Amino acid sequence: MEKQQIIELIDANVNQVQTLIHERVQIWQTYVLFSGLWWFGVFLSIFPWILWIFLRDKHSTDRILYVGYFVIVISLVLDILGDQLGFWHYRFNVIPVLPTYFPWDITLMPVSVMFLIQIKPKTNLYLKAIFFALLTSYVAEPFITWLKIYEPQIWKFSYSVPIQFIIYLLAHYSSRRNKFKELT
């Protein structure tokens, strides 16, 4: 296949995707924006951060935020991959053009991990990791599925357990790093 034919195929595909995104935004504006589940998503996007601001360990704010940003990046990447590969999809998005559920990736995952790392820091990290993995996989995911926000296609809740376990372990490991060189 010639370079020009490949370019035309890619451009045609991009045009189809843009048409579908435009249609998705229209559906969102008409049916989702300001609905109960949209407001629920807005609440989930803001309230946990407010709670964290007041309840965080003020002496560890920078370290814990570092971990939170780390979890946000991992969550976003994995969520986008899962959505794009057709493992699941979301309805009632807070922001229509994002293929992820904003409250989950930007708020619930990182804030939960940040709180768990802060609370009882001497508790066995594997116990905390399994608690986090089971809570997110068997409580949070089924709950947002029940609300019809999250629709697993070929994904099972059990598949999330080892992933959430590893995310927590990596976050915990990141929270213990202290070899930052001072900027000069």
From TrEMBL:
<keyword id="KW-0472">Membrane</keyword>
<dbReference type="InterPro" id="IPR048147">
    <property type="entry name" value="CBO0543-like"/>
</dbReference>
<feature type="transmembrane region" description="Helical">
    <location>
        <begin position="37"/>
        <end position="55"/>
    </location>
</feature>
<feature type="transmembrane region" description="Helical">
    <location>
        <begin position="126"/>
        <end position="147"/>
    </location>
</feature>
<feature type="transmembrane region" description="Helical">
    <location>
        <begin position="64"/>
        <end position="81"/>
    </location>
</feature>
<keyword id="KW-1133">Transmembrane helix</keyword>
<keyword id="KW-0812">Transmembrane</keyword>
<feature type="transmembrane region" description="Helical">
    <location>
        <begin position="153"/>
        <end position="171"/>
    </location>
</feature>
<protein>
    <submittedName>
        <fullName>Uncharacterized protein</fullName>
    </submittedName>
</protein>
